[in-house]
């Protein structure tokens, strides 16, 4: 899979760990930055991540900041993205199964490395359930429906 990953300064270490983990699983990973822990604004990286998921450059996105909240809000400003803030594997799997989430967000100050890896595993191994969820997901990008 083609996966993009981005963070703010608070999550740069978790981003590096997850990037290497995903590469080790055989995924193609685009690291959208930042490269250092120097202060940056999470919306800039959330918007960058959303752009590459929306245009199809990446199939999925991984968004990280201190809490995961701010960057998930930034990603979700793009109508083509459905970014779910998760903290454990069940919510990660349900984000895919029920909401067809194409991005996952986590907080580096709240989620440890092993839990973050477990969330990624659940997210990437779960398919969208379709059916009764499909119409609801369509409304997420097209509120006039």
Automatic annotation (TrEMBL):
<dbReference type="InterPro" id="IPR036569">
    <property type="entry name" value="RpiB_LacA_LacB_sf"/>
</dbReference>
<dbReference type="GO" id="GO:0016853">
    <property type="term" value="F:isomerase activity"/>
</dbReference>
<comment type="similarity">
    <text>Belongs to the LacAB/RpiB family.</text>
</comment>
<dbReference type="Pfam" id="PF02502">
    <property type="entry name" value="LacAB_rpiB"/>
</dbReference>
<dbReference type="InterPro" id="IPR003500">
    <property type="entry name" value="RpiB_LacA_LacB"/>
</dbReference>
<keyword id="KW-0413">Isomerase</keyword>
<protein>
    <submittedName>
        <fullName>RpiB/LacA/LacB family sugar-phosphate isomerase</fullName>
    </submittedName>
</protein>
């Amino acid at each position: 899979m083609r996966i993009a990953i981005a963070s703010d300064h608070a999550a740069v270490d978790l981003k590096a760990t997850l990037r290497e983990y995903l590469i080790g699983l055989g995924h193609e990973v685009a690291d959208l930055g930042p490269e250092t822990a120097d202060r940056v604004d999470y919306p800039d990286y959330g918007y960058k991540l959303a752009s590459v998921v929306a245009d199809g450059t990446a199939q999925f996105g991984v968004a990280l900041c201190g809490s995961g909240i701010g960057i998930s809000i930034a990603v979700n400003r793009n109508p083509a993205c459905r970014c779910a803030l998760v903290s454990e594997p069940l919510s990660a799997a349900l984000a895919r199964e029920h909401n067809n989430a194409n991005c996952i967000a986590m907080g580096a100050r709240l989620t440890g490395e092993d839990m973050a890896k477990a969330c990624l595993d659940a997210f990437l191994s779960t398919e969208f359930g379709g059916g009764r969820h499909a119409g609801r997901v369509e409304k997420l990008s097209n509120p006039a429906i």
